[in-house]
Write a structure and sequence with these properties.
The protein is of the alpha+beta class. 46% of the residues lie in helices and 17% in strands. The chain has ten helices and four strands, in the order E-H-H-E-H-H-H-E-H-H-H-E-H-H. A four-stranded antiparallel sheet has the order 2-3-1-4, with helices on both faces. The relative contact order is 0.23.
Length: 164
Amino acid sequence: MAVERTLVLIKPDGVQRCYSGEIISRFEKAGLKIAGMKMAWCNKQHAMKHYTEDITKRRGEFVRNKLLEFLTIGPVVAICLEGVEAVEVVRKLVGGTEPRTAAPGTIRGDYAHMSYTYADDIKKAIPNLIHASGNKDEAKSEIALWFTPEELHSYRTVHDVFNI
């Protein structure tokens, strides 16, 4: 059992739809601790560091360009969450990348609905509300991209005190 940190971005569609509080609340209710949080309007250079060339290899240049464009259309809420096996817990709470197939009860399953096919047809990034680090290594590099060490905090919560 390892305490980890992971990155979550509430994307511009989540912010613009006023879901930030609801999304944050779901993570806290699951026992995750906010180690850092801020709102930022991402420019293209920063977005390119977040959505690296690796995504081009996996999903293609079209998808990367649409993601870069989407991440810069409005503010995002960047959150560093901490908890036992945080990366896996967050991924489970967030749900599958494609909202259409995300399980009910997950953030994407409850608040988003678009399919990859429809997004491709209208030539836009799929509005799926949230980004969550895919693994521990990705979490470390993404947290370092979005937060300085001074912006991250350690403190005890009731979960720490009672080991729950």
